[in-house]
Amino acid sequence: MTTTHPRTARRATAPSLPALPAADPELARDAAELQQALEELIRVYQFRDRDRICCHDISVSQCYALDALVQRGPLTLNDLAAHLYLDKSTASRIVDGLERKGLARRGAHPADGRAVLLSATRAGARLRERIRDELLADQMRLLADFEPEVRRAMARLIGRLASAAAARVEAGGGSCCRVD
Amino acid sequence: MTTTHPRTARRATAPSLPALPAADPELARDAAELQQALEELIRVYQFRDRDRICCHDISVSQCYALDALVQRGPLTLNDLAAHLYLDKSTASRIVDGLERKGLARRGAHPADGRAVLLSATRAGARLRERIRDELLADQMRLLADFEPEVRRAMARLIGRLASAAAARVEAGGGSCCRVD
DNA sequence: CGAATATTGTTGGTACGTGCAACGAATGGC
DNA sequence: GCCATTCGTTGCACGTACCAACAATATTCG
Question: With b meaning 16 or more CB within 10 Å and e meaning fewer, what string describes A19-30?
């Protein structure tokens, strides 16, 4: 325990894992398999994103933020932070970067003097479109090797998984080392 | 173009997107859906990992590295870096962190005086096991809501997708703004 | 063998990502 | 009008990430 990371050690060891579906070997196997596959998937996609996005003079996080601003219209900083699962300070700095590059704008909130309304500029929307097209082209090349039913199933199932995971997280479904 | 990120601008605009499977609206739709779903999935899982792993006084990257060392036995630094899709300097620093915490060790390579052989310590293996169990428990709780066939399919398809993506990346399937 | 070349890992430099705590400004309840 | 709350920014500390340069060792080839 040399460095005490901020997010560190709210409780080091769970006394006993909370309410598991208990003995279901099938479930356990599926979970392990999924865990392994997800880890690989995330590692490789993170790399891909770094590689593909950074050459547009924009970071991956900035790209995600830009995407959110384009897709979900004007957002307050808190909204954006929540959507990205980031601290508002982090979100603020990411917006700093986007603003510096002229890709996003901080506007006044009509009804709340404290809040800011973030939106993408024309240039931001254009860039986002270009990057999106490139990633999509990548994805198409990758998917072309799969049978149509398989790739359709992939998209659907991953969507369901993402939604379920998001719901879990948003429901506070267990922040770090749960305090019950 | 204020800040010139290292990985920036090897070529700003692709002259014309290389060899797409061209006109297949089905494929395009699936790709777009998958893209969207993956983005959400990765965002939420990254958050989960940060939240779950960091409270063990270890960073997400360090955890991935530790996992690789445990699962794949002793590795050289280059091997580890390749596995994690990171620069060797980054990998070296991550190992610094693990070593400082007594979770990994740098050993001499029997056949090559330049190389180091990285391995996890007992403590490292134990920690990795504990974290793995927690993540797995999470995963099980999440999967418990799905029908058995669905969750099995999820695990399998995500595995296939990850493999395909990894193969693409490793084949140099298109580094940033491809130079042809 | 010995010199040139290549590879391995570390370090310096730079910039961004990330969270927490503390802060000023504005809002809202009373 | 005052106090508590909320919004966003900033200070701080550290991790992540790249590239470039370097020392130490291996390898190739004359």
Answer: eeeeeeeebbeb
A123 in B contact zone (CB under 8 Å): no
Distance A109 CA to D2 C1' (A): 25
Rounding to the nearest 10 degrees, give the CA dihedral for residues B38, B43, B47, B52. 10
Residues with CB under 7 A from strand C: A 6-7, 59-62, 85-87, 89-90, 93-94, 97, 112-114; B 3, 5-6, 46-47, 50, 76-78, 88-89, 92-93, 95-96, 106, 109, 112, 114-116
- Whether A146 contacts B124, CB under 8 Å: no
- Distance in Å, residue B113 CA to nucleotide D23 C1': 13
Q: Which one of B4, B45, B101 has the shortest CB-CB distance to A38?
A: B45
Question: What phi and psi, each to the nearest 5 degrees, are found at residue B18?
Answer: -70, 145
Name the CA radius of gyration of chain A, rounded: 20
For residues A54, B160, B148, B132, the Cα torsion angle rounded to the nearest 10 degrees is -60
- Blockwise average pLDDT, block size 10, chain B, 180 residues: 44 45 78 92 92 91 96 94 96 96 95 94 95 92 91 92 90 54
